[in-house]
Amino acid sequence: MRSIVSFDMDMTLLDHETFEIPDSAMKALEMLRERYVVVLATGRDMDSHYSRNLRELVKPEAIVHTNGTKVTVGDKVIYESFMERELKERLLTFARDHDLAVGVTIGDEDYYIHRERVTEFDEQRWGECGRRYCDPWKLLDMDVPSMCYIGGPEGAARLERAFEDLKFPLFAERRGADVIEKKNSKAKGLRMVCDYFGSTMEEAYAFGDSMNDYEIIQAVGVGVAMGNGDPRLKEVADYVAPHIRDDGIYRACVHLGLIADAHDTGGGRA
Question: By three-state DSSP, how is residue 240 classified?
Protein backbone atom coordinates (compact mmCIF):
# COMPACT_ATOMS: atom_id res chain seq x y z
CA MET A 1 0.00 0.00 0.00
CA ARG A 2 1.37 3.41 -1.01
CA SER A 3 0.82 6.51 1.08
CA ILE A 4 -0.63 9.72 -0.40
CA VAL A 5 1.37 12.92 -0.86
CA SER A 6 -0.89 15.83 -1.79
CA PHE A 7 0.05 19.26 -3.13
CA ASP A 8 -1.81 22.51 -3.60
CA MET A 9 -0.94 24.20 -6.89
CA ASP A 10 -0.71 28.00 -6.63
CA MET A 11 2.21 29.27 -4.53
CA THR A 12 2.84 25.73 -3.28
CA LEU A 13 4.03 24.12 -6.50
CA LEU A 14 3.50 27.04 -8.90
CA ASP A 15 5.48 30.21 -8.23
CA HIS A 16 3.42 33.23 -9.25
CA GLU A 17 6.53 35.36 -9.71
CA THR A 18 7.82 33.21 -12.58
CA PHE A 19 4.59 31.32 -13.26
CA GLU A 20 6.66 28.15 -13.27
CA ILE A 21 7.11 25.15 -11.01
CA PRO A 22 10.68 25.35 -9.64
CA ASP A 23 13.08 22.75 -11.01
CA SER A 24 13.73 21.44 -7.51
CA ALA A 25 9.99 20.85 -6.97
CA MET A 26 9.77 19.00 -10.30
CA LYS A 27 12.69 16.84 -9.17
CA ALA A 28 10.92 16.09 -5.88
CA LEU A 29 7.74 15.07 -7.75
CA GLU A 30 9.73 12.75 -10.00
CA MET A 31 11.32 11.06 -6.99
CA LEU A 32 8.05 10.85 -5.05
CA ARG A 33 6.26 9.02 -7.87
CA GLU A 34 8.54 6.03 -7.32
CA ARG A 35 7.05 5.30 -3.87
CA TYR A 36 3.93 7.39 -3.28
CA VAL A 37 0.62 8.34 -4.84
CA VAL A 38 1.10 11.97 -5.92
CA VAL A 39 -2.14 13.97 -5.71
CA LEU A 40 -3.11 17.54 -6.53
CA ALA A 41 -5.59 19.18 -4.14
CA THR A 42 -6.28 22.63 -5.51
CA GLY A 43 -8.81 25.41 -5.91
CA ARG A 44 -8.38 25.09 -9.67
CA ASP A 45 -10.30 22.91 -12.05
CA MET A 46 -7.26 21.16 -13.45
CA ASP A 47 -9.21 20.22 -16.57
CA SER A 48 -9.73 23.89 -17.51
CA HIS A 49 -7.99 25.80 -20.28
CA TYR A 50 -5.77 27.62 -17.77
CA SER A 51 -4.60 24.52 -15.91
CA ARG A 52 -4.28 21.57 -18.28
CA ASN A 53 -0.62 22.30 -19.03
CA LEU A 54 0.18 22.27 -15.30
CA ARG A 55 -1.68 18.99 -14.86
CA GLU A 56 0.48 17.45 -17.57
CA LEU A 57 3.64 18.71 -15.87
CA VAL A 58 2.77 17.33 -12.44
CA LYS A 59 1.27 14.05 -13.70
CA PRO A 60 -0.79 13.33 -10.58
CA GLU A 61 -2.48 9.96 -10.15
CA ALA A 62 -5.50 11.71 -8.66
CA ILE A 63 -6.82 15.27 -8.40
CA VAL A 64 -9.04 17.00 -5.87
CA HIS A 65 -10.34 19.85 -8.05
CA THR A 66 -12.01 23.13 -7.08
CA ASN A 67 -11.64 22.66 -3.33
CA GLY A 68 -13.15 19.20 -3.22
CA THR A 69 -16.16 19.68 -5.49
CA LYS A 70 -14.72 17.23 -8.05
CA VAL A 71 -12.40 14.28 -7.47
CA THR A 72 -10.79 12.34 -10.30
CA VAL A 73 -8.49 9.34 -10.47
CA GLY A 74 -6.96 9.33 -13.90
CA ASP A 75 -9.88 9.89 -16.27
CA LYS A 76 -12.43 8.54 -13.78
CA VAL A 77 -14.66 10.97 -11.84
CA ILE A 78 -15.31 9.51 -8.38
CA TYR A 79 -17.13 12.54 -6.91
CA GLU A 80 -18.78 15.68 -8.25
CA SER A 81 -20.95 18.32 -6.57
CA PHE A 82 -22.76 21.33 -8.06
CA MET A 83 -24.42 24.41 -6.58
CA GLU A 84 -28.20 24.64 -6.68
CA ARG A 85 -29.69 27.17 -9.10
CA GLU A 86 -31.30 29.19 -6.30
CA LEU A 87 -27.96 29.56 -4.48
CA LYS A 88 -26.20 30.70 -7.66
CA GLU A 89 -28.90 33.28 -8.34
CA ARG A 90 -28.70 34.67 -4.79
CA LEU A 91 -24.92 34.87 -4.96
CA LEU A 92 -24.73 36.59 -8.35
CA THR A 93 -27.50 39.03 -7.46
CA PHE A 94 -25.78 39.97 -4.20
CA ALA A 95 -22.47 40.47 -6.04
CA ARG A 96 -24.13 42.65 -8.68
CA ASP A 97 -25.91 44.80 -6.10
CA HIS A 98 -22.85 45.22 -3.84
CA ASP A 99 -20.24 45.88 -6.55
CA LEU A 100 -18.36 42.63 -5.96
CA ALA A 101 -16.58 40.54 -8.59
CA VAL A 102 -17.88 36.98 -8.32
CA GLY A 103 -17.87 34.23 -10.92
CA VAL A 104 -16.02 31.23 -12.22
CA THR A 105 -13.98 29.86 -15.10
CA ILE A 106 -15.56 26.81 -16.72
CA GLY A 107 -13.63 25.08 -19.46
CA ASP A 108 -12.11 27.82 -21.58
CA GLU A 109 -14.57 30.60 -20.69
CA ASP A 110 -14.97 33.09 -17.83
CA TYR A 111 -18.30 34.08 -16.27
CA TYR A 112 -18.00 37.01 -13.85
CA ILE A 113 -20.21 39.69 -12.38
CA HIS A 114 -18.24 43.01 -12.47
CA ARG A 115 -15.68 41.60 -14.88
CA GLU A 116 -13.87 44.96 -14.95
CA ARG A 117 -12.54 44.20 -11.47
CA VAL A 118 -11.26 40.83 -12.64
CA THR A 119 -9.51 42.44 -15.60
CA GLU A 120 -7.88 44.99 -13.29
CA PHE A 121 -6.74 42.20 -10.95
CA ASP A 122 -5.24 40.16 -13.80
CA GLU A 123 -3.43 43.15 -15.27
CA GLN A 124 -1.92 44.03 -11.89
CA ARG A 125 -0.94 40.42 -11.21
CA TRP A 126 0.16 39.14 -14.61
CA GLY A 127 0.56 42.29 -16.71
CA GLU A 128 -2.29 41.26 -19.02
CA CYS A 129 -5.75 39.75 -19.07
CA GLY A 130 -6.50 36.89 -21.42
CA ARG A 131 -9.98 36.10 -20.12
CA ARG A 132 -12.70 34.86 -22.46
CA TYR A 133 -15.68 36.58 -20.85
CA CYS A 134 -19.22 35.31 -21.25
CA ASP A 135 -22.58 36.31 -19.76
CA PRO A 136 -22.37 35.33 -16.05
CA TRP A 137 -26.12 34.77 -15.82
CA LYS A 138 -25.69 31.72 -18.02
CA LEU A 139 -24.26 30.07 -14.90
CA LEU A 140 -27.81 29.63 -13.63
CA ASP A 141 -28.35 26.88 -16.19
CA MET A 142 -24.85 25.38 -16.00
CA ASP A 143 -23.16 22.87 -13.70
CA VAL A 144 -21.15 25.06 -11.31
CA PRO A 145 -19.15 23.34 -8.56
CA SER A 146 -17.86 26.49 -6.86
CA MET A 147 -17.08 30.14 -7.61
CA CYS A 148 -14.44 32.74 -6.93
CA TYR A 149 -14.46 36.23 -5.45
CA ILE A 150 -11.87 38.76 -6.66
CA GLY A 151 -11.17 41.66 -4.33
CA GLY A 152 -10.02 42.59 -0.85
CA PRO A 153 -10.80 40.77 2.43
CA GLU A 154 -13.56 43.23 3.33
CA GLY A 155 -15.64 41.99 0.39
CA ALA A 156 -15.10 38.37 1.39
CA ALA A 157 -16.23 39.22 4.93
CA ARG A 158 -19.38 40.87 3.55
CA LEU A 159 -20.17 37.77 1.51
CA GLU A 160 -19.55 35.50 4.50
CA ARG A 161 -22.03 37.44 6.60
CA ALA A 162 -24.66 37.16 3.89
CA PHE A 163 -24.30 33.45 3.05
CA GLU A 164 -24.25 31.09 6.01
CA ASP A 165 -24.19 28.03 3.71
CA LEU A 166 -20.94 29.11 2.04
CA LYS A 167 -17.33 29.62 3.11
CA PHE A 168 -14.87 32.12 1.64
CA PRO A 169 -11.26 31.13 2.40
CA LEU A 170 -8.92 33.92 1.32
CA PHE A 171 -6.12 33.44 -1.18
CA ALA A 172 -2.64 33.67 0.37
CA GLU A 173 -2.13 37.18 -1.04
CA ARG A 174 -5.58 38.17 0.38
CA ARG A 175 -6.79 39.63 -2.92
CA GLY A 176 -9.62 37.19 -3.43
CA ALA A 177 -11.30 34.09 -2.04
CA ASP A 178 -12.74 30.78 -3.06
CA VAL A 179 -16.52 30.48 -2.80
CA ILE A 180 -17.33 26.97 -1.57
CA GLU A 181 -20.33 25.22 -0.10
CA LYS A 182 -19.54 24.25 3.48
CA LYS A 183 -20.22 20.59 2.72
CA ASN A 184 -17.13 20.44 0.46
CA SER A 185 -13.41 20.73 1.20
CA LYS A 186 -10.04 19.52 0.01
CA ALA A 187 -9.93 17.30 3.11
CA LYS A 188 -13.16 15.54 2.15
CA GLY A 189 -11.88 15.04 -1.39
CA LEU A 190 -8.54 13.66 -0.26
CA ARG A 191 -10.28 11.22 2.06
CA MET A 192 -12.08 9.82 -1.00
CA VAL A 193 -8.73 9.44 -2.76
CA CYS A 194 -7.29 7.62 0.25
CA ASP A 195 -10.26 5.25 0.28
CA TYR A 196 -9.87 4.61 -3.43
CA PHE A 197 -6.21 3.62 -3.06
CA GLY A 198 -6.75 1.70 0.18
CA SER A 199 -4.71 4.19 2.20
CA THR A 200 -5.62 6.42 5.16
CA MET A 201 -5.58 10.11 5.98
CA GLU A 202 -3.34 9.36 8.98
CA GLU A 203 -0.66 8.11 6.58
CA ALA A 204 -1.08 11.01 4.15
CA TYR A 205 0.98 14.17 3.69
CA ALA A 206 -0.46 17.47 2.42
CA PHE A 207 1.33 20.66 1.32
CA GLY A 208 -0.43 24.03 1.04
CA ASP A 209 -0.12 27.79 1.45
CA SER A 210 -3.55 29.42 1.87
CA MET A 211 -6.72 29.16 3.91
CA ASN A 212 -8.43 26.76 1.51
CA ASP A 213 -5.74 24.32 2.70
CA TYR A 214 -6.63 24.78 6.38
CA GLU A 215 -8.87 21.72 6.70
CA ILE A 216 -6.65 19.37 4.70
CA ILE A 217 -3.53 20.39 6.65
CA GLN A 218 -5.33 19.53 9.88
CA ALA A 219 -6.87 16.29 8.58
CA VAL A 220 -3.77 14.45 7.32
CA GLY A 221 -1.06 12.73 9.31
CA VAL A 222 1.54 15.33 8.33
CA GLY A 223 0.39 18.78 7.23
CA VAL A 224 3.00 21.08 5.67
CA ALA A 225 2.54 24.84 5.28
CA MET A 226 4.78 26.71 2.87
CA GLY A 227 7.09 29.37 4.29
CA ASN A 228 5.36 31.90 2.03
CA GLY A 229 1.93 30.77 3.27
CA ASP A 230 -0.76 32.31 5.45
CA PRO A 231 0.38 32.69 9.09
CA ARG A 232 -2.86 31.08 10.27
CA LEU A 233 -2.08 27.98 8.23
CA LYS A 234 1.39 27.75 9.72
CA GLU A 235 -0.12 27.68 13.19
CA VAL A 236 -1.92 24.37 12.55
CA ALA A 237 0.75 22.73 10.35
CA ASP A 238 3.00 19.95 11.59
CA TYR A 239 5.91 21.44 9.65
CA VAL A 240 6.61 24.77 7.95
CA ALA A 241 8.59 24.36 4.75
CA PRO A 242 11.00 26.94 3.38
CA HIS A 243 9.65 29.54 0.94
CA ILE A 244 8.61 28.28 -2.49
CA ARG A 245 11.51 30.27 -4.00
CA ASP A 246 13.96 28.68 -1.56
CA ASP A 247 13.40 25.12 -2.87
CA GLY A 248 10.68 24.72 -0.26
CA ILE A 249 9.03 21.59 -1.68
CA TYR A 250 12.27 19.70 -2.26
CA ARG A 251 13.81 20.64 1.08
CA ALA A 252 10.63 19.76 2.98
CA CYS A 253 10.40 16.36 1.29
CA VAL A 254 14.01 15.64 2.23
CA HIS A 255 13.46 16.84 5.80
CA LEU A 256 10.39 14.60 6.19
CA GLY A 257 12.19 11.58 4.76
CA LEU A 258 9.93 11.34 1.75
CA ILE A 259 12.88 11.51 -0.66
CA ALA A 260 16.64 11.24 -0.30
CA ASP A 261 18.81 14.20 -1.12
CA ALA A 262 21.71 14.05 -3.55
CA HIS A 263 24.12 12.85 -0.85
CA ASP A 264 21.82 10.28 0.80
CA THR A 265 20.66 6.80 -0.13
CA GLY A 266 17.77 6.73 2.33
CA GLY A 267 14.09 7.10 1.59
CA GLY A 268 10.75 7.89 3.05
CA ARG A 269 7.84 5.93 4.36
CA ALA A 270 6.18 3.83 1.67
Answer: strand
Quote the CA–CA distance of 268 and 246 in Å, as a whole number. Answer: 22
The length of the chain, given as a count of residues: 270
**Partners of 152 in beta bridges:** none
pLDDT tens profile 210-240: 999 999 999 999 999 999 999 999 999 999 9
Q: Which pLDDT value is given to residue 121?
A: 87
Convert the pLDDT of each residue in 164-205 to its tens digit.
999 998 886 788 999 999 999 999 999 999 999 999 999 999
d(CA 67, CA 44): 8
Sign of CA dihedral 244, 107, 211, 58: negative
Checking if the pLDDT of 97 tops 50, the result is yes
Q: Which residues contact 9 (CB under 8 A, 6 or more apart)?
A: 40, 42, 43, 44, 46, 51, 54
Q: What is the DSSP secondary structure assignment for residue 227, as one 8-state letter?
A: T
Q: What is the C-alpha to C-alpha distance for residues 85 and 174, in angstroms, rounded to an integer? A: 28
pTM, rounded to two decimals: 0.86
Q: Please, is 221 exposed, middle or buried when counting C-beta atoms within 10 Å of its C-beta (0-12, 13-18, 19+)?
A: middle
